[in-house]
Write a structure and sequence with these properties.
extended, membrane, single chain, histidine kinase, Beta-Lactamase, EC 2.7.13.3, 4 domains, five-stranded antiparallel β-sheet, PAS, Helix Hairpins, alpha+beta, 691 residues, transmembrane helix
């Protein structure tokens, strides 16, 4: 007995030792797994930190790119504004095409431009390529008498020759100038009777331009180069993966580069460090949690068993959903006999499982006339190596002999060796859909008839617009006239409140009068086009007057309105009232859609036998997909009831009709959130003769 007790105690002790040994092994295994999890999390942490750093870097590049684009656009616009003055000088030289006339008028003509436009070192005219007339005289120095065509510098000779041959504006530099300083030289050739007459030259003071557009030439984070030669800034910027912006100026292509102050890495170092400190905490926490989770393995095994049971229930539920689906399912063997169907087959076709299992699906379900076609489709699918499924439509027999139109999708069933063991056919009843399509076709034909009726109604609408506009004009004139008599106290003294009320009535009457005029324009253009009375017209005076009329509206919104008119602009033949309406519409639209701080430029120049007028703004722009519709009548970019900007949508429609009636053309260019430029071309019928 004593030996037996001793043996049991020994056995129990061995069992306890074995359990301790097993628990110890599991403990060390859990530690090993925890270390593995920690290493994986650390790798992921490094990757996430890398992604975050890349995102910060991308955002920083985007901000730097936006800043660079603004600087590049400002630089390009600033230079182009000044070069427009060179084009004016070229036009001046064409008019005054002899030395006596140039010498007499040159200084007076240039003085106005030079005094109002900063950043220009000098203007020069070189008849036959020889520098003769220079303004201001203080800039002349050794330039007088200098033969540009035979200049000792090859690059200058090449640029001068290119100017003469092309007739375009050609830029040289920027480089150190003979007369001192750092400048960009712009040249344009002038021709008289098709023969080269003179070179017109402008020297642009580049340090002034850079400062004017906010580019610090002494900054270590910005640089400008052309022809792979850095002309301002730090050349090392181009070796530090900068953001780049190409500036295209006539024959020149400049590349502007920018990096953050201090460099890329230094700009994001603080954020990256903070992110790493914050994100390492979850890594440590997850590692600790993993260790405790692993030590609860038995609980997890119980949980897995429970989840397995739930998955089994979900599988059964999924099977039920398949039976309740709106699609019929058939599984066929290699002989086309049906081996499995779902409940939807009985619902749609009336067959029970006992009725249909084991039968040939073509002979049972497909009408005789369609069987050969369906058989060929199935054979082509089963014989294809790349395409294992087909779609087709077919009439399908129900149990009671009726026909339903079914969309079939057949796909091959293959075993692990790629051998076809059967076919899965899914069918959807599309009978109602086909009936709907037929009804839609009939409806489309009815719509076509209604469309013709609408065209007739459109004609009636035009007549109505014309009649109602004429009918409204008479009472509106009376309302406006009596309101003005009362406002100016021709009918007795008024209080301040009464005068304010009458002022609103007068303003509203004027707005309504403009609307009535616009509607009459629309009605007139639809009846037979706008008939203009063409007379000799001073376009410069007309544009100046309209600009003065709208300048108050621009100033009240904080918008800068500029007017640039070529001094050689000739008289044209046009209808002053109609053309005034066109340019008033264009300027009014530009003011309406430009926010405070924006710019509007109205310019006019002579191009051959055409006058080119443009209205350029920095407003909200127009989406590209809507550009073709803006000249349609009553069209508005934002036509919603809650739109921000008021209007009838007929201003551009009327403007286009008027311009076309003058033998001209109108179009616009626009970029959303950047701005819009409207171009107007008018023919020149009468041109001033130059001296």
């Amino acid at each position: 007995m004593g030996n037996m007790g001793k043996s049991e105690s020994l056995s129990r002790g061995n069992g306890q030792n074995t359990e301790k040994s097993t628990n110890l092994s599991i403990h060390f295994m859990n530690i090993a797994v925890t270390i593995g999890i920690f290493l994986i999390l650390i790798i992921l942490w490094f990757q996430v930190c890398h992604w975050y750093e890349q995102d910060l870097y991308s955002e920083l590049r985007l901000e730097e790119t936006k800043t660079l684009i603004l600087q590049a656009d400002s630089l390009s616009m600033s230079i182009k504004e000044r070069i427009s003055l060179l084009k004016g000088l070229s036009s001046f030289t064409q008019v005054h095409n002899n030395c006596d006339s140039i010498e007499k008028h040159f200084s007076d003509y240039i003085r106005g431009f030079y005094s109002t436009s900063g950043g220009i070192r000098n203007f020069a005219v070189a008849p036959g390529g020889v520098q003769t007339y220079i303004y201001p005289g203080s800039e002349a120095g050794s330039m007088i008498g200098h033969d540009l065509i035979n200049d000792s510098r090859e690059n200058v000779r090449n640029d001068v020759n290119l100017t003469i041959v092309s007739g375009d504006v050609i830029l040289s530099g920027p480089y150190e100038l003979r007369q001192g300083g750092f400048g960009l030289v712009a040249r344009k050739a002038t021709y008289v009777d098709g023969e080269f007459f003179a070179l017109t030259t402008m020297v642009i003071d580049m340090p002034y331009i850079f400062q004017d557009v906010g580019i610090n030439v002494n900054s270590s984070n910005i640089a400008l180069r052309t022809d792979n030669q850095t002309i301002i800034g730090n050349p090392d910027v181009f070796r530090q993966y900068p953001v780049l912006q190409t500036i295209y100026l006539y024959n020149k292509q400049w590349e502007l580069a920018r990096i953050p102050a201090g460099g890329w890495e230094a700009s994001i170092a603080e954020q990256v460090t903070l992110f790493k400190l914050i994100t390492i905490l979850p890594v440590l926490l997850l590692t600790i949690m993993s260790y405790f989770v692993l030590n609860r393995q038995r609980d997890l095994e119980t949980s897995v068993a429970q989840q397995t049971s739930e998955l089994r229930m979900e599988k059964e539920l999924t099977q039920k959903y398949l039976d309740d689906s709106g699609v019929m399912f058939f599984i066929l063997d290699v002989d086309d006999n049906i081996s499995l169907v779902n409940k939807k087959v009985e619902e749609l076709l009336g067959y029970t499982r006992l009725d249909i299992l084991g039968s040939n699906w073509l002979e049972t379900l497909i009408p005789k006339n369609d069987r050969q076609h369906i058989r060929e489709i199935c054979d082509s699918m089963l014989g294809s190596k790349s395409d294992d499924s087909r779609y087709c439509e077919s009439a399908t027999l129900t149990k009671n002999g009726d026909l339903k139109l079914v969309m079939w999708h057949a796909s091959a069933i293959k075993n692990e060796f790629g051998e076809i063991t059967g076919m899965l056919a899914a069918g959807k009843d599309i009978t109602e859909r086909k009936e709907t399509e037929t009804a839609l076709k009939n409806f489309a034909e009815e719509l076509s008839i209604k469309n013709e009726e609408l065209k007739s109604l459109d004609l009636l609408k035009n007549e109505f617009i014309s009649n109602i506009s004429h009918e409204l004009r008479t009472p509106m004139n009376s309302i406006k006239g009596f309101a003005e008599l009362m406002y100016y106290e021709n009918m007795g003294k008024l209080s301040t409140e009464q005068k304010n009320a009458l002022s609103k009535i007068i303003n509203s009457s004027q707005d309504l009068e403009k609307l009535i005029d616009s509607l009459l324009y629309v009605a007139s253009s639809r009846k037979g086009g706008i008939k203009c009375s063409l007379v000799s017209l001073d376009l410069r005076k007309l544009l100046s007057e309209i600009t003065n009329n709208v300048s108050h509206d621009a100033e009240s919104k904080g918008i800068r309105l500029s007017l640039y008119i070529d001094s050689s602009l000739p008289m044209i033949k046009g209808d002053e009232e109609y053309l005034a309406k066109v340019f008033w519409n264009l300027l009014n639209n530009a003011i309406k859609f430009t926010t405070s701080g924006g710019n509007i430029i109205l310019s006019a120049s002579l191009i051959g036998d055409k006058v080119h007028i443009s209205v350029e703004d920095t407003g909200i722009g127009i989406p590209h997909e809507q550009l073709e519709s803006v000249f349609d009548d009553f069209y508005q970019v934002d036509g919603s009831p809650t739109r921000k900007y008021s209007g009838t949508g007929i201003g551009l429609f009327i403007s286009k009709k008027i311009v076309i009636s003058h033998g001209g053309d109108i179009w616009l260019e626009s970029t959303k959130d950047v701005g819009t430029t409207v171009h107007v071309i008018l023919p020149v019928y009468e041109q001033k003769t130059g001296i």
